[in-house]
């Protein structure tokens, strides 16, 4: 029972006492974004985790992100407020099935979205995030055959943009799948001058209507630099919090799902973290992310390639 405890004050105290850094993704609740030392997209958060000199990384995000932090910073204690904060893309790609798929296509390299398990990273050649995928793909020789997993929408988007065939793993993000084209077009009719920004995890019937397609940080940057005063945002709606902080005089509207509002597009995994669980994680230094050393080193190879090729 945490009643009577000033959770925010305790987080502040423990952050110093533990020499902890709090990293948060844009899809986290506003109160977690507000007290984080750094808020970013998957690539930026990986870089921060790799560089930090803190003793503890408290990761307000999902499991694959905390795993990535541990892979890159093995000497740090990495805590995730709720270990059940998974990802539908990770779930769609069991390592044994991925291994069999790779073995069936020995002449292909595996270019793999960071939204996957450590085991799948270890079975991959190069990891990408939504902000680094285009730069990295362009560095791979045109005659090199590629397996892209687990997000078939990001893979399909890259394939169309660069006119490059890839074998796509059939995974999807349940959050970005839930946007409705019919409702989006209705919304756009109400705001004819508002551009649409979409994450590449969205299916083609959403991305095809977008004026800008990019990672969460890319979308935030677009919001800051766009000409108009209203933006329709086709990604997880918690990012709108950062837009309102950065550009308070513009209007941001979350793209709708089939019910006409954007609440069905809240990521249920990201939503598992909250202030109370963050406090307990800093107090007890649990739940901790631990990775067996052989597996960590194998996964680190593909992540290091990403960090090299993304810059
Ligand atoms: P980025 O923040 O890298 O765009 O990733 C989005 C996402 O879905 C994370 O789970
Ligand atoms: Fe996974 Fe989608 Fe949630 Fe991101 S928004 S963590 S891709 S389920």
Topology (SSEs and partners):
Layout: H1 7-17, E1 20-25, H2 30-35, E2 38-40, H3 42-51, E3 56-60, H4 63-72, E4 77-79, H5 88-91, H6 95-104, E5 108-113, H7 118-122, E6 126-128, H8 133-137, E7 145-149, H9 152-161, E8 167-168, H10 174-177, H11 181-190, E9 196-198, H12 204-207, E10 212-213, H13 216-225, E11 230-234, H14 240-246, E12 251-254, H15 275-284, H16 293-310
Parallel strand pairs: 1-2, 1-3, 3-4, 5-6, 5-7, 7-8, 9-10, 9-11, 11-12
Bound molecules: 1,3-dihydroxyacetonephosphate and iron/sulfur cluster.
Structural class: alpha/beta
End-to-end Cα distance, whole Å, is 46 Å
> Could you tell me which ligands this complex binds, including any ions or cofactors?
1,3-dihydroxyacetonephosphate, iron/sulfur cluster
Number of domains: 3
* CATH-defined architecture of the largest domain: 3-Layer(aba) Sandwich
Largest sheet data: 4 strands, parallel
Identify the strand order in the major beta sheet: 2-1-3-4
> What gross morphology would you assign?
globular
CATH class category of the largest domain:
Alpha Beta
- Poorly predicted spans: none
Total count of strands: 12
Q: CATH topology of the largest domain, which one?
A: Rossmann fold
Q: Based on the structure, what is the oligomeric state of the protein chains?
A: single chain
Order of helices and strands: HEHEHEHEHHEHEHEHEHHEHEHEHEHH
| Overall average pLDDT | 97
Helix content: 40-55%
Beta-strand share of residues:
15-25%
The CATH superfamily title of the largest domain: NadA-like
Q: Treating each run of at least 4 consecutive H or I residues as one helix, how many helices?
A: 16
Taking all Cα atoms into account, the compactness measure Rg is 19 Å
């Amino acid at each position: 029972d945490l009643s009577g405890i000033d959770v925010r004050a305790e987080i502040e105290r423990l952050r110093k006492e533990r020499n902890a850094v709090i990293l948060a993704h844009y899809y986290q609740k506003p109160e977690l974004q507000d007290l984080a030392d750094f808020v970013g997209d998957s690539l930026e958060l990986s870089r921060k985790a790799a560089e930090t000199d803190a003793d503890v990384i408290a990761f307000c995000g999902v499991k694959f992100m905390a795993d990535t932090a541990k892979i890159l910073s093995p000497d740090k204690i990495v805590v995730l407020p709720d270990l059940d904060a998974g990802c539908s893309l990770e779930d769609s790609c069991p390592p044994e099935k991925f291994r069999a798929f790779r073995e069936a296509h020995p002449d292909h390299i595996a270019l793999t979205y960071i939204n996957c398990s450590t085991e799948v990273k270890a079975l991959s050649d190069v990891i990408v995030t939504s902000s680094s995928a285009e730069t990295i793909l362009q560095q791979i020789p045109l005659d090199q055959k590629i397996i892209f997993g687990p997000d078939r929408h990001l893979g399909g988007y890259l394939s169309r943009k660069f006119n490059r065939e890839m074998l796509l793993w059939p995974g999807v993000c349940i959050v970005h799948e839930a946007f409705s084209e019919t409702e989006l077009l209705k919304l756009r009719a109400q705001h004819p001058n508002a551009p649409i920004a979409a994450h590449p995890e969205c299916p083609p019937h959403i991305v095809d209507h977008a004026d800008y397609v990019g990672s969460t940080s890319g979308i935030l940057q677009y919001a800051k630099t766009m000409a108009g005063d209203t933006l329709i945002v086709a990604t997880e709606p918690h990012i709108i919090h950062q837009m309102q902080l950065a550009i308070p005089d513009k209007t941001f509207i979350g793209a709708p799902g089939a019910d006409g509002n954007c609440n069905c597009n809240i990521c249920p995994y990201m939503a598992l973290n909250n202030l109370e669980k963050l406090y307990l994680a800093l107090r007890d230094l649990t739940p901790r992310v631990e990775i067996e050393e052989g597996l960590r080193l194998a996964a680190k190879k593909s992540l290091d390639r990403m960090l090299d090729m993304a810059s």
